[in-house]
């Protein structure tokens, strides 16, 4: 399917179902916690780097990821400010404008139009998942990314797996298991140092 071309009818119906399900999941679930494993492959690495940890997200404006190894790293985002803590040092970044722009692109009212303009999208359905393959065809992303693959749970439309293949040869795969939805969260876990 080329950019700007209408997808075949069965693809269109399936894609519309996925977009609607993702929007409903964002509205329905105020928070979620679980486990995350990232596998990163790079021409600069002798072997893949595998990092496992836990995450919690509260809406679109707060999240925390704690990787256990090989080197512990804690990443905390709270309303525009990102803290990355490793080896006892914390880097403080004001990323609010970039995050707002990204959220509008991927999760805003025009998200499906944005994605269909800048990607060739294929969607497939299995017994328990929806799988989307996005190939960049225009925009800034096309200069940096070869392919994005996303797998969503069929029952809840929550992410299970995300794979990003970069043009630089760096590929990252995230395996995601959401364990708790909408449980009360300790707000102190989202505290950040601000610039």
Detailed description of the structure:
The protein is an alpha+beta fold and 195 residues long. It has a single domain (9-190), classed as outer membrane lipoprotein receptor (LolB), chain A, CATH 2.50.20. It is 21% helix and 46% strand. It is built from 3 helices and 11 strands, in the order H-E-E-E-E-E-E-H-H-E-E-E-E-E. The chain has helices at residues 9-28, 96-107, 111-118; strands at 31-41, 49-58, 62-69, 73-78, 81-86, 89-94, 119-125, 129-136, 145-153, 159-166, 171-181. Strands 6-5-4-3-2-1-11-10-9-8-7 form an 11-stranded antiparallel sheet. Strand 5 and strand 6 (89-94) form a beta hairpin. Helix 2 (96-107) packs across helix 3. The radius of gyration is 17 Å and the shape is globular. The N and C termini lie far apart (45 Å). Residues 1-6 have low confidence and may be disordered.
Relevant terms:
single chain; 195 residues; alpha+beta; outer membrane lipoprotein receptor (LolB), chain A; eleven-stranded antiparallel β-sheet; 11 strands; disordered N terminus
Give the structure's gist in a few sentences.
This protein is α+β, with helices and mostly antiparallel strands.
Largest sheet features: 11 strands, antiparallel
This entry's quaternary arrangement is: single chain
Q: Helical amount among residues, as a percent range?
A: 10-25%
Give me the Rg, rounded. Answer: 17 Å
Return the CATH topology.
outer membrane lipoprotein receptor (LolB), chain A
Question: Which CATH architecture is right?
Answer: Clam
**The CATH fourth-level homologous superfamily:** Lipoprotein localisation LolA/LolB/LppX
- The overall pLDDT average reads 91
The stretches of 5 or more residues where confidence is low (pLDDT under 50) are 1-6
CATH class: Mainly Beta
What fraction strand? Answer: over 45%
The count of β-strands is 11
């Amino acid at each position: 399917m080329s950019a700007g071309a209408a997808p075949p009818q069965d693809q269109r119906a399936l894609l519309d179902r996925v977009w609607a399900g993702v929007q409903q999941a964002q509205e329905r679930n105020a928070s979620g916690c679980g486990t995350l494993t990232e596998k990163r492959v790079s021409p600069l690495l002798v072997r893949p780097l595998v990092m496992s940890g836990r995450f919690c997200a509260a809406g679109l404006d707060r999240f925390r990821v704690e990787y256990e190894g090989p080197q512990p790293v804690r990443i905390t985002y709270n309303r525009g400010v990102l803290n990355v803590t490793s080896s006892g040092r914390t880097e403080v970044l004001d990323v609010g404008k970039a995050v707002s722009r990204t959220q509008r692109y991927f999760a805003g009212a025009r998200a499906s139009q944005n994605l269909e303009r800048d990607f060739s999208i294929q969607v497939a359905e299995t017994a328990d998942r929806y799988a989307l393959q996005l190939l960049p065809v225009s925009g800034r992303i096309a200069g940096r990314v070869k392919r994005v693959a996303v797998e969503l749970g069929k029952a809840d439309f929550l992410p299970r797996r995300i794979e990003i293949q970069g043009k630089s040869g760096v590929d990252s795969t995230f395996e995601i298991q959401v364990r708790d939805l909408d449980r009360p969260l300790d707000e102190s876990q989202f505290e950040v140092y601000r610039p």
